[in-house]
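hi! just following up on the protien thing from before. the input was this:
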Amino acid sequence: MRSLLLQITAVTAMNLKSLPKRFWLSLSTVVAVALVVVVLLAFLAMQNGFQHTLDSAGAKDVAVILRGGSQSEVASVIARDQVRLIEEAPGIAKGSDGKPLVSAELYLVVDGIKHSSQTKANLPLRGIGQEGAAVRKGITITAGRMFAPGSNEIVVGKALLKEFDGLELGQTVTFGTGRWKVVGVFEAAGSVFESEIWADLPVVQSFFKRDNVFQTVRVRLVNPAALAGLQRYLDTDPRLKELEAKSEAAYFAEQASRTTDLIQKLGWPLAIAMAFGALAGALNTMYSSVAARTTEIATLRAIGFGGLPAFVGTLTESLLLALIGGVLGAAATFLTFNGLSAATLGASFTQVVFSFKLTPALAAEGVSLALIVGLVGGIFPSIRAARMPILAGLYGR
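and the predicted 3d structure came back as:
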């Protein structure tokens, strides 16, 4: 066994020391593998960043009430009388003034102009009342102030400022039939709420002719377990039976899953298709490596080295090139994409601003794919090296 290990070590060292002789061929394989990893990790970082943005908005002790069967807020309708009944439901937390923390809201789509392309894109305008910010956690006005009730004023999520024109503090924009002044910028702990514009609910209802109609009701619960009691309350009242309550965390998880599934369905097939190209390069490199060392391999076999050391040495070379490509690809993705701001359509057909987020676990997926390419690309040339006839190798045939 010790003799075999020494043989494997010697052959592997010989293979690796000869890499400079095949520098350009080896480099092409490394670059091909690195590109595969960059493509895959860019999509995974996009998916992870989008997922994180929506997940961070979801609280387990906040319930979102929509009309049953509604896939998003824009498809839901809730009447004013139903809101009053919801305020009497059990398990709802109360504010310092003793009033239930219930926020009836209107969610509309308005036009924004993207920085990058100067084209129109859908933005969410949310009409909220006095309790709108109170039912959400981590809301902070970072510039200016909150809009005044009854006024044509808006506050803008911090993330929108990175991607859209005309929303800076002090600017005036036109939404619907009215002109609105930006009086504040707010943060929401990096959540999806930072991709929204907020205004006074009655004013939004008036300008968009949605009097006495809401689309969603958010309520802060005394604890997450109170959600079951709230749903029972809705189910037992005929006037509320058509409504459905779910935790904010569950609601945003559903919203995120549609987009993240699409990103995965695009990213993995594209990366795998490119991997076949990298695999062809790896096979070409390793067959050329074996061909260049035909005499060396045959000589070692003639002096007593077995076929296994030649197999392991060649396979190790292939895996090393793939590993280098994988690590370089992961590093390039981190430097290029991690933290990069982008915007994409969410479930309500409005723009969600998020940042690419590459984690060590995702980087490990990319490197693993690289090693698979190296393994498959190296195994057949390794078998050829192990089975090479001694005489054919010595005489270059």
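Residues 248-292 form the longest helix (45 residues).
The chain has eleven helices and 15 strands.
cheers
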